Amino acid sequence: MSRILIIDDEPGIRTVLSGILEDEKYDVLAAADGYAGLAALRDNDVDMVILDVLLPNMGGIDVLKTIKEEYPDIEVIVISGHANIDIAVRAVKLGAFDFMEKPLSMDKIINLVRNALKLEDLKRENKSLKDTLYMDDKMIGNSPAMNIIWKRIQQSAASDAKILIHGENGTGKELVAREIHRRSRRADKPFVEVNCAAIPETLIESELFGHEKGAFTSAVARRKGKFEIAHEGTLFLDEIADMSLSAQAKVLRAIQDLKFERIGGEESISVDVRLIAATNKNIQEEIQHSRFREDLFFRLNVVPIEVPPLRERLEDLESLLDYFMKKYQPQNGGKMKTISKGGRRRLMEYTWPGNIRELKNFTERINIMVDEEEISEETVLYYLGENAGTGAGDGWLDEFRDMKLNDAKNEFERAFIEQTLRKNNNNISKAAEVLGIYPSNLHGKIKKLGIQTKK
Known about the structure:
CATH architecture of the largest domain: 3-Layer(aba) Sandwich
Oligomer: single chain
Largest sheet: 5 strands, parallel
Structural class: alpha/beta
Number of domains: 4
Strand content: 5-15%
Number of strands: 16
Mean pLDDT: 86
Low-confidence stretches: 131-135, 386-395
């Protein structure tokens, strides 16, 4: 039930308005002057106000100013028996929803109240949606490593300089890209993300540049590419080092000229796009092994940003943990869970190989699975895994210790894919589904890593 506050010094107006609005199933409060009205606002949850202009002690315009300063989301309908155009214009400029002259039309006042409350509901819904989006996108941290990133973001956001973000999986590279976009002059334009690692080589050109109807067998209609969709906004190429050399050449040409043609098209399309790229690979090693174009690297690496792994910014762990615990608290009205001092100590000792993504998943899991209001040290260890915090958790790294990073990554990838294939009887489609990649990508990795797939 919406609650409406009437502020008017005439008892008859208060009585009539209260009766009409209560008949419409609204909860009504009434005050005889501005001071009493503001006191009622501070003591009660009020959804909207009907305010007389001429009030004793404190004028209605001053009351309106105070309401819009202290309660900007509350809609106010201003009424007056001595109305003039200047007062009406001034009230609306100060944020009033509308202005009505006395004697009041009850039908009109009811319609105005309904419309004002609808607008307020829309504002709240919009704010809720924005808050939800912000919760998903929010960057957390004030550690020295994060302060460097914040400074880079602040320095680079206002420009159109190309940015290359480095960091392990799960460190939050996309959040950095979104924060740059949010602070840029393009913030009200599209932010378009392309996961280069998830798109097969045969489709990447169509994905980026689009195609004309009939350009190839499955092109049943014209389709815009991501470059075109991101016009006047930001294009984020995630895991760009997983892109094939031929696709890299086409991207290089597009970002040099900011022009391209759709597949099967002859028209040259010009775009205004701010480019941000990210990778979890060592680009210098990729260049040395002829897997990444050096000229593309120099084009992209105008502003480099290094996102550190969670183990190198443990000062932020407490803030991140509190943030995720609040985000994933029970939605059924249950009490928000806390983590014991011993449990927090174990979390600080853990190496977090999956970085913030692993912390996020861990926090969501314990909020769903654990009944304890204060989550114990033993429960934390159980959900982290048997080896967490015992010193044995790093044993699996021993076989990689003498390898270069790229060799270690390839060896781990080979072992992981072989294990997944065995579990799925060497069925490529099923294994690709489990791994979260396209079958064509898996075929490429099998060939590159020399994996045997005989049944």
